[in-house]
Amino acid sequence: GENVEQHPSTLSVQEGDSAVIKCTYSDSASNYFPWYKQELGKRPQLIIDIRSNVGEKKDQRIAVTLNKTAKHFSLHITETQPEDSAVYFCAASMSTGNQFYFGTGTSLTVIP
Amino acid sequence: GAVVSQHPSRVICKSGTSVKIECRSLDFQATTMFWYRQFPKQSLMLMATSNEGSKATYEQGVEKDKFLINHASLTLSTLTVTSAHPEDSSFYICSAYRAVNTEAFFGQGTRLTVV
Question: Does the pLDDT value for residue A47 go beyond 90?
């Protein structure tokens, strides 16, 4: 089955700096890679996703890049703000929907 | 995004009793739903994959007789924790898969406390 690894497990940045979280996956058949943000005690919320037919996607301060050859994808948050502090999860899935595996999570703290 | 409703959000039960958690996709049909368990400050651990009309597929190490999953319709999956024990206390969360865009949406989670 799919194995998704995520690094780092914790990340602290100064407000205004950038944050980068990286994930690798093992199954080359995976073709959908979402990122979720989970605030304490709440459900994970989809913040951005990328499919295997593109290499990069951007939405305001958030961007995701995908390297299919190396089987890794990354989340980039620019101009970080305190409200960006949360746990971020990456995931890998196939279009068949039979598998949806998450990385181990990154606890991001943005220091004002 | 699509709406997934999970109920109850919190439940406290006595050791030895059973608890049922419901996961509903309110505005789309979900042929597949996933059940996760999450410990404090840890990731989502996939427990099982539930497909409508068929038996759930459990991850290694998850007791299928203890965590009963039923996916009777395209909008409802249930997780029943049978003979609950204090070590079953955790945050349980479901997600429903929407095939159209290959996306998964989460319920709000259930905080189970077994006393």
Answer: yes
